[in-house]
Amino acid sequence: MSKIFKFGEEVEGYTIPVLNEREIRAAAGILFLMMFISILEVIYRGNFTWLKYAVVIFMTDILIRVLINPKFAPSLILGRLIVRNQTPEYVGAKQKKFAWIIGIVLAVTMFVHLVVMNAYSPITGLICFICLIFLFFESAFGICLGCKFYSLIYKEKAQCCPGEVCEVKDRQAIQKTSWAQIMIVLVFFGYIFLTISFLKENFSKKPFDLFGIEKHQQTK
């Protein structure tokens, strides 16, 4: 039973239970895509069906992670299959468990509001937004926002963080950002803003059929 109900893996060279960050990021990407598409269905079509399915899937998956064993969670199994040829990047299981408990609170709240009560409110909208942010940061940047709260609440320092961010060290030259690079980003956003401002009518209009292909097809 101890092998079934267990959180984290014992890996040689590590004194604490760990998880593979690469498969966690892959799983976060899968869940993000599922939630994002479901939310788009709500926004553009007013269809909550897919979002209800997504909430049940997300809640069940994260309950399996925390209450049983992460290696039995469907999204993490799919993530493991996707990144099976990549070298594992180990992360401390303790802070991940704390982060996923936050996920359980959000998922259960959504389940009660949206599925059980069949109601929506600013609360469900805010939770969807928070979930998307958490999943996006995990999948795109490898940043576990929930893990950040671990160090704030618990006095002990998190161990074995992705990218060794827990370790105090100087950035390497390739990691440093110059003021010129920051200015390029600011100028880029200014350029986008000005372009949209000057051409806002063109952006809002539907493009016309340059070669008349659609009109020709209608006359057939």
Structural write-up:
This protein has a two-stranded antiparallel sheet. The protein has 2 domains: 18-171, no CATH class; 174-204. The longest helix has 25 residues, at 21-45. Helix 2 packs antiparallel against helix 4 and helix 4 (93-116) runs antiparallel to helix 5. It is mainly alpha-helical. 63% of the residues lie in helices and 3% in strands.
Sum up the structure in keywords.
single chain, 220 residues, globular, two-stranded antiparallel ribbon, 9 helices, 2 domains, mainly alpha, 63% helix
- Give the averaged pLDDT, no decimals: 87
User: What is the number of beta strands?
Assistant: 2
- The unreliable regions are none
Overall spatial form? globular
Strand content: under 5%
Percent of residues in helices = 55-70%
Q: Structurally, how many domains make up the residues?
A: 2
**Can you summarize the main beta sheet?**
2 strands, antiparallel
What is the chain-wise order of helices and strands?
Answer: EHHHEHHHHHH
Give the CA-CA distance, first to last residue: 70 Å
Please tell me how large the radius of gyration is.
22 Å
The number of helical segments is 9
Structural class from helices and strands? mainly alpha
Strand order of the largest sheet: 1-2
Summarize the structure.
This protein is an all-alpha fold and about 220 residues long. The protein has helices at about 20-45, 50-70, 75-80, 95-115, 120-140, 145-155, 180-200, 200-205, 215-220, and strands at about 20, 90.
Topology at a glance:
Layout: E1 18-20, H1 21-45, H2 49-68, H3 74-82, E2 90-92, H4 93-116, H5 122-141, H6 145-153, H7 179-198, H8 200-204, H9 213-218
Antiparallel strand pairs: 1-2
